[in-house]
Amino acid sequence: MVKVTEIIVLHTTKSGDDSIVIHTLSKEYGRRGFLVRGVGKKSVTALLQPLSIIEAEIHESTKSKLYMAKSLTARYALNGIRNDLYKNSMTMFMSEVLYRTVKDGAMEPGLFEWCEKNILLLDAIESDFSNFHIRWLLEFAVTLGFSPEAGDLMPFTGAHYPIVERFMGGSFADTMLIPVSGQIRNEIAEGILRYIEFHTESAINVNSLKVLRELFS
Length: 217
Hints:
α5 (132-143) runs parallel beside α9. The chain folds into two domains: 2-74, CATH 2.40.50.140; 79-215, no CATH class. The longest helix has 19 residues, at 182-200. It has ten helices and five strands, in the order βββαββααααααααα. The chain has a five-stranded antiparallel β-sheet. With 217 residues, it is of the alpha+beta class. The protein has helices at 42-47, 79-82, 85-101, 111-124, 132-143, 150-157, 161-169, 172-176, 182-200, 209-215, and strands at residues 2-14, 19-26, 30-37, 53-59, 68-74. The mean pLDDT is 90.
């Protein structure tokens, strides 16, 4: 059976000489990996950047749980992200959080739509987006069903609680303008990740957070 579906790329894993497994999110399959053959071409590699939104033919099989993805095409160009070092680094962070938090096979209602909306929002913003990943993490916790109040995050964010409270109480536009140093922003992000770890009962080791700390310091 072949189905055409829209998927968001989270991570890729090499499989043999010219194949990879793409770990993805989609409305139809949730969090799932698909095998892609013949990935030596630069055009294919460019399609599989973190948080790329692509259309693919999914070839289902009764003989294997690992379905194949073919005829990959970009759903959106995302030039606003791909041409910006800072935004690219944010998508690396966001995709790594999703990859390490959402378990393979999981179906989280509304998660795909929420991710797609935020990817397109980040792509469109032209300035003042240094706080984007903080707002994104807080909304991610809500999307997972935890719906934290500001006080729930106090044990994880400590002295930065007043800033977190502003993030949770302000509009998107207002929170993008909250003055926060790179170090404090990094510590808040780590605190929110620890909160998500606590509720998912799993370790989330996000290496790309260090890159954001250096870029937005």
